[in-house]
Amino acid sequence: MMLRMMGVLLCAALVACVDVMPQKDFNLEKMAGKWWIVGFATNAQWFVNHKAGMKMGTSMMLPTAGGDLDLTYTNLNADGSCWRMTHLAKKTDIPGRFTFTSQSWNNENDMRVVAVQYDDFALIHTIKTKDGVPEVLNKLYSRTPEVSVALQQKFMRFSLDTGISSDNIAILPKNGECT
What we know:
Helix content is 20%, strand content 42%. The protein has helices at residues 2-18, 46-50, 149-161, and strands at residues 33-42, 57-63, 69-76, 82-91, 97-102, 107-117, 121-130, 133-142, 169-171. A hairpin with a 2-residue loop joins strand 7 (121-130) and strand 8 (133-142).
């Protein structure tokens, strides 16, 4: 019975993932620049133990001449050091959809920019697959560390709609910036 229930939940999660498409009329060049990561939601088990200690970080997005997206993430640690990670997200045939392999986490990533107002926010949905097991990660990006309550609610609704429990959705507290 438990195995059947897990199978049903996994199928429901996969169906939610498949239906998420990038925003129409996506403009790669307008994604360029600095973004604050203000919201984080995932169905990954590790998040339960780390959610309380997470804080806002930043991401620099730089479109390449070939249409890919260079991503650099930074987060200021409690001891004042900086955590950094970079990825080159490769374009696909669908504008606003990118794929990359994370060397740090040893997983395949299918990233979709599902909603964006280029001077305000971006909602990015990523399906991360490791050893054949998919996990959903939604991030809310903002051009500033401030985000409206309406936008927070939109992020929470989207995350719930993509199979993430309310306990695994976080609006991250402010943090200092890496230099």
